[in-house]
Amino acid sequence: AAKMGRIPSLKNFNAFPHAEDHLLKKTYSGAIVTILGLIVMVTLFAHELTFYLTTYTMHQMSVDLKRGETLPIHINVSFPSLPCEVLSVDAIDMSGKHEVDLHTNIWKLRLDKYGHIIGTEYLSDLVEKEHGTHDHDHGHEHDVEKKPEHTFNEDADKMIKSVKLAMENGEGCRVYGALDVQRVAGNFHISVHGLNIFVANQIFDGSSHVNVSHVIHRLSFGPEYPGIHNPLDDTSRILHDTSGTFKYYIKVVPTEYRYLSKGVLPTNQFSVTEYFVPIRPTDRSWPAVYFLYDLSPITVTIREERRNFLHFITRLCAVLGGTFAMTGMLDRWMYRIIESISSSKPRSGM
């Protein structure tokens, strides 16, 4: 008998008590609340599933231990006011040596005044050869030294006429391609320094008339990964009635992007500071566009991650369970309101 007396007390632990009969009635208000609850639950389920499937990135910094590798540079720069015949590209490292890897692949694309390509030229050698001695003091301007040539041969005259005609027709030039340089500080620049000083004077009538207006369509130091931002992309610098030298001081940050599939993409990010130095009448230097780069000793590792499956299940249960409970409470609340309104109506006379 004592045992039978203790068994009914177990009912207090029932987490799923049966509802009374009057709470099991099906009503229109309950149907509306149920439909709304299902819509909310489906919406929240889709949101949680998207949140779980979307990858996020973790950033980690460490000391860069790479040695003996090259630094890839991808350039795409247009000069709307300078024909390709007068432009040269040069790359030097911090020691002043013109050292460019064999994988260099630079093209000069002739542009008409509308920006359409009308010709191409492949640059097999980036070292400037026409000028005399230049001062490469860690990327500062070249001092154009005069050669003892006071007469022009037929080739020089022909070039001068060709360049002047191209300038009258509004020709421009796009420098496009990639080069691999030593993994040390250095610079590469685009200028008219490849011209003989007397030829340059005949064409431009002095350095102050060299218009180095340019548009940087793309500049990067390696392949692109999801979310990368190259700060110089689509940068336009147009000069009017002035001339000078543009200097872009670039800090390159070695970067590794690790995909969720365990693939690794070595590349580089960079930040930049820009300066413009106007040409003065007493300057011996000629206008140019310099990209001076240095490497950070810190490497950044960006790793793709996906959220834990148990975390997803926990959030899903919490969201759907909470929505179900709120729907039940709303249903009971509406049922009581409707019942109270119905009971307060005056009954018709007998």
From TrEMBL:
It is a multi-pass membrane protein. One of its GO terms (cellular component) is endoplasmic reticulum. The chain crosses the membrane at residues 31-53, 312-330. Its main location: membrane. It is found in: Membrane. InterPro entries: Erv, Erv_C, Erv_N. Residues 164-331 form the Endoplasmic reticulum vesicle transporter C-terminal domain. Residues 10-99 form the Endoplasmic reticulum vesicle transporter N-terminal domain. Keywords: Membrane, Transmembrane, Transmembrane helix. PANTHER family: ENDOPLASMIC RETICULUM-GOLGI INTERMEDIATE COMPARTMENT PROTEIN (PTHR10984), ENDOPLASMIC RETICULUM-GOLGI INTERMEDIATE COMPARTMENT PROTEIN 3 (PTHR10984:SF25). Belongs to the ERGIC family. This is Endoplasmic reticulum vesicle transporter C-terminal domain-containing protein. It comes from Aegilops tauschii subsp. strangulata. The lineage of its organism: Eukaryota, Viridiplantae, Streptophyta, Embryophyta, Tracheophyta.
